[in-house]
Design a protein that fits this description.
Layout: H1 26-36, E1 74-82, E2 85-89, E3 94-98, E4 101-107, E5 112-117, H2 124-138, H3 143-146, E6 151-155, E7 162-164, E8 167-171, H4 172-180, H5 184-196, H6 198-201, H7 205-214, H8 220-224, H9 226-243, H10 250-259, H11 261-269, E9 285-291, E10 296-302, E11 308-314, E12 321-328, E13 333-339, E14 348-353
Parallel strand pairs: 5-6, 6-8
Antiparallel strand pairs: 1-4, 2-3, 4-5, 7-8, 9-10, 10-13, 11-12, 11-14
Helix pairs in contact: 5-9, 7-11, 9-11
Length: about 350
């Protein structure tokens, strides 16, 4: 079924209490104690770095990187009935075939997610309450983290969250503990990183070079499982220093910036869509080049992921002709190239973002 991973608070068990020394707040220690009680798996391969990582796991570093008062992209939730689905359940540590309650969550950046709620919740109404609770929370994650999340599995129980398989796994008993400690959104950032970033970046040459250049890891969890966990562990800290520097202490900002500067630079170079944490720039035409000799021209404008645009042409700004009815976004910048042997001496072009259905 592909790779599977879990949050640093609920993944590989660690019995050595000296590892708590990296955490300097009682809240963090409480979280660790709670999650360590529910995991028993063993050690994996270890890669030693030059310096001891500053944190055990990054989901604990600050509860305010994303909060419940932050904007969400969530738009609507619809009941789509029931259907057979294969879901992973950590209570049995295996795949289970169920007939869950199904809901479609839609977000204002064009993404949608099927939320699959275990039939153990008893009724469509009870399942809807859980889906309505978590769909807006997931919508606070940046677009780049939800881009490849196709499904959410929801079960009862106090078991670790999971990410991967284009999915987010939620056990609501554990979710309540995360929420009580203020890190529910931070855990979801970690898990969604597995689903939407790992496949593209974990073995990318630029990322591997950044790891090598940094010479150390941001957490013990990342160091012990560098291929599987370093992206997820590092992305939350990138989000903190890049987009939420006003919400973290200067000491934390400095620690992150000095420990993994090359990883942070790597994430910045990817032009990841961080909406709604970072609001997108207004639609602006960035470039226009026209070669009268060949008739070739190129138009570029700022764009948003998962959006569609139309390009219109006018000779007088009064009447407009649709030149290109639909062109899919190419990321933060979209380019259109055309060949038109003749254009009038005066021509106007405009770009429109087509409203989502």
């Amino acid at each position: 079924m592909g790779a599977w991973s879990c949050a640093s608070g609920g993944g590989e068990g660690r019995g050595n209490e000296t590892r708590f020394q990296a955490l300097d707040s009682p809240i963090m220690k409480t979280i660790l104690l709670r999650t360590l009680l529910i995991v028993t798996s063993g050690w994996g391969a270890i890669q030693w770095s030059v310096a001891e990582p500053p944190f055990w796991g990054t989901i604990f570093i600050d509860p305010d990187i994303i909060t419940g008062s932050d904007p969400t992209t969530f738009v609507s939730l619809s009941d789509t009935g029931r259907g057979m689905r294969q879901m992973y359940d950590r209570r049995v540590n295996d795949w289970v075939l169920l007939n869950p309650y199904l809901f479609e969550a839609r977000y204002d950046d064009g993404l949608k997610i099927e939320i699959q709620v275990n039939p153990e919740f008893g009724s469509a109404g009870a399942a809807m309450i859980e889906a309505e609770k978590y769909a807006p929370i997931i919508g606070r994650l940046p677009t780049c983290l939800r881009a490849d999340v196709e499904t959410v599995w929801m079960h009862q129980g106090v078991q670790p969250f999971g990410g991967g398989n284009n999915n987010l796994l939620i056990h609501i008993g554990q979710a309540d503990l995360y929420a009580a400690d203020g890190i529910l959104e931070e855990v979801l950032v970690h898990e969604a990183s597995h689903s939407s970033l790992d496949a593209y970046h974990a073995t990318a040459s630029g990322w591997l070079k950044a790891q090598e250049s940094d010479g150390e890891f941001i957490s013990l969890y990342a160091r012990d499982f560098p291929r599987r966990e370093d992206i997820a562990e590092s992305f939350l800290t990138f989000l903190a220093v890049h987009s939420r520097p006003d919400r973290i202490s200067q000491d934390l900002f400095t620690t992150i910036s000095q420990t993994i500067p090359n990883r942070i630079a790597y994430f910045e170079s990817q032009q990841l869509d961080l909406y709604p944490i970072v609001m997108p720039p207004p639609l602006t035409i960035r470039e226009f080049h026209y070669d009268r000799g060949t008739g070739d021209w190129m138009l570029a404008w700022t764009s948003r992921q998962n959006r569609t645009y139309a390009v219109d042409l006018s000779g007088n700004l009064g009447s407009w002709e649709v030149l290109v009815p639909a062109i899919s976004s190419q990321g933060t910048t979209t380019r259109l190239t055309r060949n038109q042997a003749s254009l009038p001496d005066t021509v106007f072009l405009r770009v429109r973002e087509i409203p989502l259905p």
